[in-house]
Specification:
- Helix content is about 15%, strand content about 35%.
- By secondary structure, the protein is of the alpha/beta class.
- Among the domains are: about 80 residues, no CATH class; about 70 residues.
- The strands form 3 sheets. It has a 21-stranded mixed β-sheet that branches.
- A hairpin with a 5-residue loop joins β25 and β26.
- It starts with 12 loop residues before the first helix and ends with a strand.
């Protein structure tokens, strides 16, 4: 024991401080000595089991007294909690980045600083397809089996920030990939042209911007879903190329996507190749195309703004822009058993001087077998600013007579006097028509069309309902220029002039003077 402690007399400041510190030290030493004596006394006497248990920690460590055990266990708990907090902080930071596991974030060269900080990959604006490929290849890989073999395909989600990715070479999706590619939103122009700050994947490769290759006769076990961005062909495209080619999908689709040729950058009014090629021939595939815009592609023969085909394909809200130059709109490669189109809009096909020939707004390809009579269902077709004529191939063209088309409604707002159903009346059925030009197509169901009569010979409508009679040209210079007359049941007739179509009530007759038309079709209404 250090007790009794020294008295503090009159001392200098330094001596006083030194003595005070010594007294504090002696007090502490005495307290520890007393504590040790008590602990020894306790330990020297057999204690009840519950007292002994109070001095044993959770990990089996025995403390001198219960108080030490409590303090010791609290210390261990605090240390463990600190480690947990540290791990949680790391996990939260990783989650805030979102780029972990099956999700990666790609920032463009023009993305904001905040976007770049949270991104896993940051592009430079030059040959961005290299970084894009690195991002996809960093995703987890899983084994997928298909007819073409067993693929270890990257699987996950790719988020692309605001701005434009510049591809110097067309990007090809890896074999067996299962991807969701998501942008911030559509943007027709980039920021340099007053755009809205969406996401653009632009390419300068003449062979196109993006492709999911079709490798086997039955398609691949490959899924690609692309949403909320624009693809843009920023260079002159070759004739046989597709700006975006998604032929190799077993499942997947597009939602809120644009495939655009911008003449301000590419330098051409309309690209020579295809825009979107979604011609999926895989058996059993399930695909969709919703809320898309394509323009302007398909400037020459055999190339189209968009090609759509699939066994099971649902299409809705498609905008096709011809750029006031292109002559080919949509090719339905092969209408499968579940092929439907909700709404489709055609704009700006043909040059404004009305000299464009052989415009094909819709072409329906050959059906797969001679026994199959495929039916393409379209809920609504709208068209405007169509310049030129369908001529021999018609605006709606069928490769064979086994297919047919049912259109619920046609909305016409074309400044040119366009007959949408020209040369296709026998295979197209329209439920309702809205338009301003009397020569434009009316709706109806196909009827057996009588032979065109000689001059002044009447042909009577013996059906119990009205029919629409279309006077159809067979080429440039064959428009009907004679006199069309209609007679009622009493034989009273009147001159209708050179109309291109007429509504013929039951029991009424029709005949021609001066000249007869080159061809006609009868449709019931």
């Amino acid at each position: 024991m250090k007790w009794p402690y020294e008295n503090i007399g009159v001392l200098t400041t330094r001596a006083f401080r030194n003595l005070l510190n010594k007294i504090f030290g002696d007090i502490g030493s005495d307290m520890q000595e007393q504590k040790t004596r008590v602990d020894n006394l306790i330990n020297g006497v057999e204690q009840p089991s519950e007292v002994v248990d109070m001095r044993t920690g959770r990990d089996g460590q025995t403390y001198p007294v219960a108080r030490d055990m409590v303090l010791g266990e609290i210390g261990k708990t605090e240390a463990a909690q600190a480690k947990i907090n540290q791990n949680n902080a790391a996990q939260l930071a990783e989650k805030a980045n979102l780029g972990s596991g099956a999700t990666v974030i790609i920032a463009t060269a023009t993305s904001s600083d905040r976007e770049k900080k949270t991104a896993n990959f940051v592009c430079t604006g030059v040959n961005d397809e290299v970084v894009f490929a690195q991002a996809i290849n960093s995703l987890p890989r899983f084994q997928y089996k298909c007819v073409g073999g067993i693929f270890m395909g990257p699987t996950g989600k790719v988020l692309i920030c605001t701005g434009k990715l510049n591809f110097g070479t067309r990007y090809s999706v890896p074999d067996g990939a299962h991807l969701i590619i998501d942008g911030i939103g559509r943007c027709y122009q980039d920021l340099a042209f007053g755009g809205n700050g969406g996401t653009i994947i632009a390419g300068t490769d003449p062979n196109g911007v993006f492709i999911a290759p079709y490798k086997t006769g039955y398609g691949d076990n490959q899924t690609v879903i692309i949403r909320n961005l624009d693809f843009r062909q920023d260079a002159v495209q070759t004739h046989n190329a597709d700006a975006v080619n998604l032929q190799g999908l077993m499942c997947g689709g597009l939602d809120n996507v644009g495939v655009i040729n911008d003449k301000n950058i590419s330098g051409v009014q309309c690209q020579d190749g295809n825009g979107l090629n979604f011609n999926n021939g895989a058996l059993g595939n399930i695909c969709w195309v919703n809320h898309i815009e394509v323009g302007a592609f398909g400037a020459t023969g055999g190339r189209y703004n968009a090609i759509l085909a699939s066994n099971h394909l649902v299409v809705d809200d498609v905008q096709l822009n011809g750029g006031s130059a292109v002559s080919n709109g949509l090719l339905v490669g092969m209408p499968g058993d579940k092929f439907t189109i909700g709404n489709i809009h055609f704009f700006g096909f043909g040059t404004p001087d009305n000299t464009t020939e052989n415009i094909q707004l819709i072409r329906v390809g050959a059906t797969s077998t001679s026994k199959l009579r495929a039916t393409l269902l379209i809920r609504n077709i709208a068209y405007e600013s169509i310049y030129g004529r369908g001529s021999t191939n018609a605006f709606i063209h069928f490769d064979d007579d086994k297919a047919e088309m049912i259109i619920d409604r046609v909305n016409a707002n074309s400044s040119n006097d366009v007959d949408l159903l020209y040369n296709a009346h026998s295979q197209v059925y329209v439920g309702r028509y809205t338009g301003t030009k009397i020569g434009q197509a009316r709706g109806g169901f196909s009827l057996s069309t009588p032979t065109i009569p000689d001059l002044n010979v009447q042909v009577k409508n013996n059906y119990p309902y009205s029919v629409i009679v279309y006077l159809v040209t067979t080429g440039v210079g064959t428009e009907f220029t004679g006199e069309l007359r209609i007679a009622d049941e009493s034989g009273n007739s009147r001159n209708l002039g050179s109309l291109r179509s007429v509504l013929l009530p039951p029991g009424f007759s029709i005949f021609f003077t001066q000249s007869v038309p080159a061809a006609w079709y009868w449709c019931g209404v």
